[in-house]
Design a protein that fits this description.
The protein is 42% helix and 16% strand. The protein contains eleven helices and 13 strands. The radius of gyration is 19 Å and the shape is globular. It starts with a strand and ends in an 11-residue tail after the last helix.
Length: 329
């Protein structure tokens, strides 16, 4: 099977590519010129001819059209995104172009070139905002609280509309926070573990964070890409929440990470009010019951194991060792 992945240079792109390549599929990936592709080096070494990259901008319709024509994919996974919530307040127009306009282009091109192509859109639990429902389900009303969330909500409804109006096999995966050793420091989880690694090595004394009480639903990226694959190879298209279903606070993430290396987090962590978001979503936990029932999907790596996996990788990287990226299997 020929598969096209946009945003292949990101965390999810790596784990999804590995899953598909291990199954013998031919993978084509779109990336931006400034993307770091170091994570893909191991895939090139292992799978060689089955992985092909295409450099370009997903907001360029002509580029997308050329790639689809040349690769003739049977499935397209749209993982490309401006995925930093805080940054979306500073660059709302760019966020909307990448997160909302690109999916529209892709769906229009599928209609134009080959309506049989299956399409996956990476949506975000941020669309629920400060929801009164706990946990959130596919029926929970959207209440986006950031430009990022608004852009993802727009993409969701575009996919849903094209599925109903044109009969396309188009799915939304509403993804809750999912992490891995590939997370950089622009994300809270990456910031915590890399700061901890520097604290352990004596290069840093404190870690500054925002809201410690914010609840998140953290899962492992390798598990979440399996859900993407399952929904794209199911008998019918639908929208699914992909989540661990477990609520943990920012404080619990920090405490678990520091405790793992034998440190008391109270001695190193400072709360900085300036790091709070303009509209902070403090409680975000979902139910993956629909995905579990329909797709048979279950997350494999729990919260504590995820934290330790990320800490181990950050410590190894700090020591100059090869970064640990938990294989999909």
């Amino acid at each position: 099977m020929r598969v096209l992945i946009t945003g292949i240079g990101g965390q999810d792109g790596y784990y999804l590519s590995r899953l598909l390549l291990q199954q013998g599929h031919q993978v084509h990936g779109c990336y931006r010129g400034q993307d770091s592709l170091r994570a893909l080096d191991s895939l090139f070494a292992e799978f060689k001819t089955n992985l092909t990259l295409h450099c370009g901008d997903v907001t360029d319709r002509a580029f997308l059209k050329e790639v689809i024509h040349s690769t003739q994919p049977e499935q397209i996974y749209n993982l490309a995104a401006q995925s930093r919530v805080g940054e979306s307040f500073h660059y709302p127009e760019q966020t909307f172009q990448v997160n909302a306009l690109a999916p529209l282009y892709l769906l229009e091109l599928i209609r134009e070139i080959d309506p049989r192509i299956r399409f996956f859109q990476a949506c975000s639990a941020e669309v629920f905002g400060e929801s009164a429902e706990f946990p959130q389900t596919e029926a929970t009303k959207f209440a986006p609280a950031s430009p990022y969330a608004v852009s993802k909500a727009s993409a969701f409804w575009t996919v849903s509309t094209y599925r109903r109006a044109y009969g396309l096999f188009a799915c939304n995966g509403i993804l809750y926070s999912h992490e891995s050793p590939l997370r950089d420091e622009s994300f809270l989880s990456g910031k915590v573990v890399h700061a901890l690694a520097r604290i352990v090595s004596g290069k840093q004394k404190t870690l500054r964070v925002g809201n410690l009480n914010s609840l998140r639903d953290w899962g492992f990226a390798g598990d979440y890409v399996e859900a993407m694959y399952l929904m794209m190879n199911y008998s019918k298209p639908d929208d699914y929440i992909i989540t661990s279903g477990q609520a943990n606070s920012v404080q619990e993430f920090i405490e678990s990470a520091f405790e793992y290396v034998g440190l008391d987090w109270h001695n190193y962590v400072e709360v900085d009010q300036s790091l709070y978001r303009p509209t902070e979503v403090s409680r975000m936990v979902g139910s993956a019951a629909h995905a579990c029932t329909e797709l048979g999907w279950q997350p494999r790596i729990g919260f504590q194991a995820l934290v330790r996996l990320m800490v181990d990788a950050a410590l190894a990287q700090e020591r100059g060792l090869t970064q640990v990226m938990q294989p999909y299997r």
